[in-house]
Amino acid sequence: MSTQEIKSQQGLRWTNIIRPSAKDKSELKSTFSFHDADFKDAFRSTFRSQIVIRENYTYMILVVPIFDPVSRTIQIDEVDTFIGKDWIVTIHDGKIPSLKELWEELKTDKKKLNELLNDNCSKFIAKMLHEVIDRTYPMIDHIDQELEKIKNAIYDETEDRRSLVKEILRMRQNITDMRKAVRGYSGVFQHFNDTALQKGGLIIFSDNKLLEGLVNDAADIWEALDSNKEEVEALQEANDGLIGHNLNEIFKTLTGISTLLLPSAVLAGIFGMNTKFGPFNGHPYDFWKIIIVMICATSILFVYFAKKHWLK
Questions:
Q1: How far apart are CA 44 and CA 26, in angstroms?
Q2: DSSP letter (8 states) at residue 272
Q3: How far apart are CA 46 and CA 37, in angstroms?
Q4: Per-residue pLDDT of the chain (312 residues; tens, 9 = 90+)
Q5: Which of 23, 94, 286, 288 has a CA 20 to 30 Å removed from the CA of 223?
Q6: For residues 152 and 36, what is the distance between their CA atoms, to the nearest angstrom?
Q7: From CA 191, how far away is CA 203, in angstroms rounded?
Q8: Does domain 2-245 have CATH number 3.30.460.20?
Q9: Among the residues of the chain, which ranges form H helices?
Q10: Which among 290, 75, 34, 89 has a CA at the least distance from the CA of 181?
Q11: Does domain 246-307 correspond to CATH entry 3.40.50?
Q12: CATH 3.30.460.20 residue spans of the chain
């Protein structure tokens, strides 16, 4: 919980608020004239990227995917950014690596700070957005690698199918969370390009190619995640199909064994009846004669099943 601030030589400042306290909220409200709806949104989780243009500032919510190497899952966080003529306020939980690294870089590199916060905040915003996008590509590469491992494992008969099911479900959740995080990127970046840069919002980009690159990147990321979604669904169907096939083979084997033993069970029941004049009763070697009859009946069924290829 802290409020940090750095300022460039030109007087532009970045206020970075991490896990804001009640005091931070009160000071922020008294210092800046934020719209009530924007102020409320800044301190609650929305999980939907968006941009709002106000008369004297621009408000941006950016949902950011974060990879947890321990659990190997994609987590979702957000940064709320208020952009004025000569100031920027960011509010977040301090978990976004790209934002933490950007803060450390500008805190120690005054030249870079003065370069990004000069005439207005446009270069800073472009830098921040590019850092977020650059962090997203390795996550997509990781998803591609994991899907390739799962694909190879599916056709490996030595693999545990139950563990594969868990891996596939984990990847489906990761892809879903990634899509949830980046689904609004194209709209936010395009909105910057169409509205914030041309009609006001106090942000003026001297080089529109910066934003065009971001819009293209957002489209590429979404397309890659669409492809990942289709692939993981196909892998799940393939794995489920193999599990179903294996179960069918097991049931087929058990059914065959039960059927082969059925004549023996019937004969055992018949000859086991407590009758005085039953077949073979009192005959020499009656036990072995019954065993031979059982073996013959089972052998006949076995040969019949083999010819029908029901035992493969």
A1: 15
A2: T
A3: 12
A4: 578 888 888 888 999 999 988 888 888 888 888 899 999 999 888 878 988 888 888 899 999 999 999 989 999 999 999 988 889 999 999 899 999 999 999 989 889 888 888 777 778 888 888 889 999 999 999 999 999 999 998 888 777 777 888 999 999 999 999 999 998 888 888 877 665 455 445 555 555 666 767 888 999 999 999 999 999 999 999 888 888 878 887 888 788 788 878 877 877 777 777 666 666 666 777 777 778 878 888 888 888 877 877 766
A5: 94
A6: 53
A7: 12
A8: yes
A9: 22-31, 36-41, 97-108, 110-116, 122-154, 161-182, 185-191, 209-271, 286-307
A10: 75
A11: no
A12: 2-245
Listed in sequence order, the residues at least 6 apart from 203 whose beta carbon sits closer than 8 Å to its beta carbon are 58, 83, 120, 121, 122, 125, 192, 196, 197
Cα–chain center distance at 234:
16
Using CA atoms of 7, 13, 17, 18 in order, give the dihedral in degrees to the nearest 10. -50
Q: How far is CA 260 from the centre of its chain?
A: 49
Q: Which two tokens stand for residue 292?
A: 């031979």
Identify the CA nearest to 291 among candidates 277, 262, 309, 271: 271
Domain with CATH 1.20.58 in the chain: 246-307
> Two tokens at 15?
């206020």
Give how far Cα 300 sits from Cα of 253, 256, 265, 297, Å. Answer: 18, 13, 15, 5
Cα Rg of the chain, angstroms: 34
pLDDT at 119: 72
CA angle 121, 124, 129 (to 5 degrees): 125
* Residue in the structure block whose two tokens are 């719209």: 35
Structure tokens at 107: 């805190």
Longest CA pairwise span in the chain (Å): 116
The answer to pTM > 0.70 is yes
